[in-house]
Input
Amino acid sequence: MAQRIVGLDIGTSAVRAVELTVGDGSRPVLEAYGQVGLPHGAIVDGEVRDLHGVAQALRRLWQEGGFREKRVHVGVAGLRAITRELDMPVIPPEELDNAVRFRADDLIPFPMDRTVISARVIAQYTDADGDQTLRVLVAAAHLDLVGSVAAAAEAAGLEPVSVDLNTAALVRALATDAGAAGGPEAIVSIGAGLTLVVVHQDGVLQFVRTIDLGGEMITASIAGALDLPEVDAESRKRGLAGSVAPDTRAVAANGQAVGELIDEVLNSVRFFAAQPGRMPITRLLVTGGGAQAMGLLEGLRQRSPIPVEPASPLSRVDIGQLPISPEEMALIDPTVAVPIGLSLPDRTGKPFNLLPPEVAQRASERRVRKGLVLVAGALIVLVGGLSAWRLLAVNSAKHQVTTLHTSIAQIQTVEIPKYDKAVQLKNAVAAEEKEPVPVLSDEVDWLVVLNQLGQIQPADSVVANIDLTATPPVASAPSSSATSSTSATASSTSVPSAEQVIGTASMNVTVPNLTSVTNWGQAMNSGTVLTDVLSAGTLAPQVTGVTFPATMNVSGGASSQRLSQFEEPLP
Output
């Protein structure tokens, strides 16, 4: 079944998002795309430093981009988002993350209490001792990094459902079988503040390096050479390629910065190739907004011993739903590899997810609160509907009584001789006046019940699926066989006593722990109209707390007080 998935890239200079419709076996369809620039310094090394500015840009992105989905898959990059390989014995998949965390002290350069870890198996082999061994790829990020990105999305009204590495997203968006010989393929993404170098083989990450240089470094070089503000230097940089007579100082500064960046990229590729057991890289794909700098792609081609090609993530998706011209496609194609990759399913079936547990818990709590609001709204509508129905019935009875009173008055003043008819009409009036009594005698004032439930319910409990049912009270047995039918009728329509049961309430209750179950029961039994509170079902703690069904009786203290309005005898 096709589903709409949003990939969100919070980059150094801009926030970008794509919304894809992804179905089984079909080509992904690009439904929406948008990009909004960020203030300088809002993102530093992948970490959000200006939460308000980023959240404001995200809200504008959703307004202008036409995105329908608010659940987003977010990417992170930076020097505090890394991958490592780890060999370990074969263990069940559900125990993998815990086992990796237990052994991660030697691999991860961050404090473990401030690190989010996700792992997946990339190979299984037999070691020198003949034991089956798993090769595990570990993704780790500092909590400050992923927490700031998730907080910015939440501040904009979005719900982050996963946090993945931008490097993994690049592989999903651009990986090919170009290794016609099945060899590794390198992807270089040059952003504003960071350059990502990732090597994969058949879609499996083999090597990742983050270089803290990018397009902003080239802009800063030009700004220093020409003594210009960086905003003006950025314009000069973009105009170098098309200028007939470019400033020689700008060209020299651009060439020096581009050469430094090419050196770092090629050093990363050489480092991978020098590792024992590595196959030669078959091709180098280049993407990212910074890759448009003058001389960068040509310089890589001249100096790289392997073929260098520009990557096109848009060629992997169906863009027919959006009116994108070839010129617009050329502008956005280098910048959408990461958000497209974040929207695509992982080939291994288990993408990294570095979403902090507390963020997932907040999202769960928001969904619970939203559900409670909907339930409360439904209850209000239900109670209101029942009250309206009761009111219509009572008003109808009142109208009939008024009509009969009018008839009696006319008989008394005009048709006194017709005594028999007057008597019959008076008896009919008396009968009609009794009609509201059985209607109201069994009526439960549910607002009283809900009020008391809200007052005595402990603050740490959540009540859902409330079912309220009125139960006509059982009349007491007559004390003598000679009791008249009139007495029986009066008993059945009188106001129930405080001890009688006039209704039942059932609900599902969620509390943090087993101790809170007892506290909840004691609190419920302290009420005046809720009695015989009974909790049942499984009380074993779950991830979100302890959930159990509960039932209770509603006593006569919650009966309707409107009966007295209709018990005035006929004159």
